[in-house]
């Protein structure tokens, strides 16, 4: 489970996917399968969560990595490049963005 703390040294990546309600379930299945069988097994992976809005037009993915380089190495693998091409067909757009935690509140 992701842990959000200000003093964390983990690299946070938030990826948003925009799609239609007709492809939401297919995209969510593809993302879950990618995490279960590949992404979560990559060096530096810490944790992730998938979120879908009630209109099923957006999925938000929050993931944590030990370093920026670990995340980038996973993206560069042949398997992930192939998966991303398929994911791209299921959505209008997706964009992973790296963030630093500035504050966290309980």
UniProtKB/TrEMBL annotation:
Note the Gene3D superfamilies from the entry. 3.30.70.100
Q: Which UniProt keywords apply?
A: Monooxygenase, Oxidoreductase
Write down the InterPro entries for this protein, in alphabetical order.
Answer: ABM_dom, Dimeric_a/b-barrel
Q: Which residues does the UniProt record annotate as the domain ABM?
A: 11-102
Task: State the superkingdom.
Answer: Bacteria
Q: Does the keyword Iron apply?
A: no
Q: Which GO terms describe its molecular function?
A: monooxygenase activity
Under what name is this protein listed? Antibiotic biosynthesis monooxygenase
């Amino acid at each position: 489970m992701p842990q959000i703390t200000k003093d964390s040294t983990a690299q946070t990546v938030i990826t948003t996917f925009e799609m239609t309600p007709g492809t939401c379930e297919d995209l969510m299945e593809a993302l879950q399968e990618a995490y279960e069988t590949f992404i979560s097994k990559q060096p530096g992976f810490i944790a992730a969560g998938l979120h879908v809005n009630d209109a099923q037009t957006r999925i938000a993915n929050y993931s944590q990595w030990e370093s920026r380089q670990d995340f980038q190495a996973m993206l560069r693998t042949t398997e992930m490049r192939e998966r991303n091409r398929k994911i791209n067909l299921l959505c209008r757009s997706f964009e992973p963005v790296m963030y630093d935690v500035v504050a966290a509140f309980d």
